[in-house]
Specification:
The complex is a heterodimer. By secondary structure, chain A is mostly helical. Chain A contains five helices and three strands. The chains are: A mainly alpha, B alpha+beta.
Amino acid sequence: MIIDLASDYFPYPSGRFTSDGTYNGERFRTEVLVPALRAAKAAGGSEKVVIDIDGVRSFGSSFLEEAFGGLVRRGLFSRGDLSSLLEIRCTKPHLFMFRDLIGSYIDSAQADLKVG
Amino acid sequence: MQRNKALFVDRTRGTPRIAGYSDFSKLTYISTAAAVVLSAEYERWREVCSEVPPTVELDKWNANVFRKLYQLGFFEIVGFTPQRDDVVIESGTTRTMQIVSMKNADDLAKVDTSLQKLGEFLNPGRSLPDEIVIDLLTGLSEAISNVTNHAYPDDITTDYPHIGSLWVAATADRENNSLTIVVYDQGATIPITYPRIGRLEKVTRYLVRTLKNDGSFDFENDGTFVRAAMKYGGSRTDEKHRGKGLPQMMDVIKRVGSGTMTVYSRGGWCRRSKNGRLKSGAVPYSIGGTLIEWSVELS
């Protein structure tokens, strides 16, 4: 399953919660990511959930952490789950750092869980 | 709009009595930051008092000041559109986008469109590089999140009633091929809210070392709080995954290359200069909120 973050959600996703804006990280996680990942997991993980970020115009850390780090932090999926179920796709070199940032938020959330 | 029309006072045919007004005819320059603060103040007046202070003797205002305020949309906030035959609004080496007043990040698309137009102004026929616009919008996104999370807490009363807004504007300057982007709120300010964060040990050590107990003027420590917020970030909950806002906003300048970022909050300010160093200070008067300014020199 391919989810185009810009066209399927919003080109300017921002903030963690509804108070930050309509297209916030919590909403993306609960309404888009979690259902897609659960469906992929139920299907045995044969097909990844691919998030295409090429068309996105803003990558605030609050949005990225809440949407992606929140998957692990809230105990919905482990980093191991996500490495087999989730792929962040981008072709623009200037967006690679944001793709990597998403990975680092997932890693940090997993590390924080272990410390906690 | 009609209700404010009477607040433009034409004094060329005599001197009508006016209870009070600000005389802008003495100004010879106004920065984008100052223009944004001024416009926000007028919007607050309009929303809270249903009217704005009168604008007087517009024909005597400096052409550059008049032009910048006109482009910014100041007169739309005031409620009338003045005409001056001697000022061509579209001339000059700078262009300022119309101010965007917003409650959250939903209007970032408007800012994106305006930045593209400023890019066209700088380099006709060429758009701003995507990586720069995306970096700036990313910084703005974080700034807006900071405002929605910290600027208007229910348990802190601001000196003047606020309208829960934030304002974004930008100016392009052809002389040095630069962009200046400003975001401003009229909220509680960093010196008030930062001491309430769940502080990491190193932040506490920094504050204990740097804060002065016997300040010689009001707001003397404000620069220290702003500097700590830029240096360490932090959130009220002390959760590790939060509080990255201001440091990420500085990352914008690191990525874009040559530029500065300055944060003004109440009486304090802190600037990240081109060489990456932080410099901070304070003045004994308040900016009435928090203002973040990025100045980016484009190659």
